[in-house]
Each structure stands twice: as structure tokens, then as C-alpha cells.
Amino acid sequence: MSSRVKKAIFPVGGLGTRFLPATKAMPKEMLPVVDKPLIQYAVEEAQAAGIEEFIFVTGRNKTTIEDHFDRSYELEDSLTARGKTEALEEVRRFMPSPGQVAYTRQMEPLGLGHAVWCARHLVGDEPFAVLLADDLIMAETPCLAQMVDVAAETKGNVVAVMDVPREQTNRYGILKVNGDPDGRRVEIGGLVEKPKPADAPSTLSVIGRYILMPDVFGHLERHETGAGGEIQLTDAMAKMIGNRPFHGLRFEGTRFDCGDKVGFLEANVAFALAHQDLGDDMRAVVRRLCA
Ligand code: UTP
Predict the structure, then answer these.
(1) Nearest CA to ligand 1 atom 8
(2) In the prediction, which pLDDT does 197 show?
(3) What is the Cα Rg of the chain in Å?
């Protein structure tokens, strides 16, 4: 089994009900933050971490994602004819090479664990990454690249983790911590999906970045349902604890929950403020709105 992480799964089969009606005919993952869809940020993060194969687990109404990662000859010809070289470069820059992208359909949104399981034949017997596009991370070193380094050292599972307010533990997969020697790399002793604040073993939560060993497919195979009646990835990961090293990485960077309206709007403001061309204008807008 190769130990280098070369493949990444992008589960994009969810219904995005929190963003209806915006997501009635458009996937949530195509919602833009400033000038790029969420899914493009996730793919670029994976590219920066050395990922070579991009596996999308899609569902109904997701064809715009396929179109986004495909050549658009008419558009490119028009941009060329009009001399719009910068715009042309922008639509070509992030394009994976032919054969690097694969799509499979989840058919029914039965949960994140089920979406990951749908990609089992495309992943095969090697470690792989999972990136949830609605967790957008602003970081100097992309979050997945930080995790790949830890996985190379530990030769085990690695998930990105962060502290959340105790009253929000029922929204996340929460860690039982076995060891926290350096405040960065946490040894995981247990995982609980969406515990009530009173029952949560910690406030350290798993966010949407994972590096997993292929053993997880064996656990997902059973299609056991968990919190919310969904097939949960957290429950399958919990079964791997004790068999192999399993670490949480307190990554460096800021995570925006773009699956939530306020988090999505916050991401737009933060990325616009950090944008080279828009930052100054945006600062003036924010000041005006808050005055
Ligand atoms: P969410 O839990 O945010 O669910 O999924 P959702 O359906 O997209 O959104 P809401 O809650 O109805 O607004 C987190 C990620 O997992 C994917 C989603 O597409 C999203 O990227 N997912 C979720 C699947 O691919 N399949 C599923 O069955 C569930």
C-alpha cells in the first residue's frame, strides 16, 4: 500500500437545504466566495497538498460542478478574441489535467459516510483525503498540506480539529482526547457525532478535512445509521481508533462554516477584505455599513 496521499474525495451530494431557495437548481458547493465557487477553493487546497486525483461524489443538480472543471471552448475563444488575457488565465489556471478528475453519483443523500463509501472503487487500497467544500479555510500553508505532513510522520489517520463553544457540540463530531502533548497534534481516544453539550467528552471538534486509511471502507460497508438517521463518517472513523495511529491536528488558519448563512457571509467579508484588489474598497464599505 502506497503511503503518499494522492487521491481526494469531494462529497458534493448533499441537498444544501439551509441555502434554499438559492440551492434549488444550483449546488451549494458552487456558491461563490468573492469570485470563486466554494468547490474551487477546496480543489486548489488539494492541488497545493500534492493531490493528483480528484474524485467528486455528486448527486442530482450537480452538473455545473462537472462543467466548472471542464474546458469551455466557446468562452475561451471569446476571451481570446477580445484580448481578455487575464480572465482567460483565471479560467484555465485551476484546471486539473485530463484524466485527473472522476465522478460518481451517490444516488441518494444518505449521509457523509455513505458519500465517501460510494468512492471506494475509485480510491482502492491507499490512504486518501476527504475535503468538504463548505468548510472554507484561510491559511498561509493550506490546511490539507499541514495534514499531509502529519500523516507522513504518523502513518495513520489525521483529521483537522478546532475548539468550538460548548453549546455547539451538537453540531459536530467531538473528540475524546487521549493525549495533547504539544497543543497541536492530539491523540484521539474516541469520537462522538453531535453529542449534547452536557455529554460531550471535550469541545474539540472535527471539521471537514480528513486523511483516512482505506480500512474505513470496511466499516462503512455495513451502512449503519447514526445521528440524524444518516450513515455517519464519524461512526466509521471511531471504529478505527486503537488499530492505527489516529490524530487530530489543530491546524493553523481560520475556518469559515459556509454551510451556514452567517458563516458564508462572514467568509465573503473576510476574503474580500484580504483580497489584493478589493480590500481597501471593502474596508470602506464595511465601515460605512457599521457606522
Ligand atoms: P451537510 O451536513 O452540510 O449537508 O454536508 P447538506 O445536505 O449539504 O446541507 P444542509 O444541511 O441540508 O444545508 C456536508 C458535506 O457533505 C456532503 C455535502 O454535499 C456537503 O459537502 N454530503 C452530505 C454528501 O455528499 N452526501 C450526503 O448524503 C450528505
Answers:
(1) 14
(2) 96
(3) 19
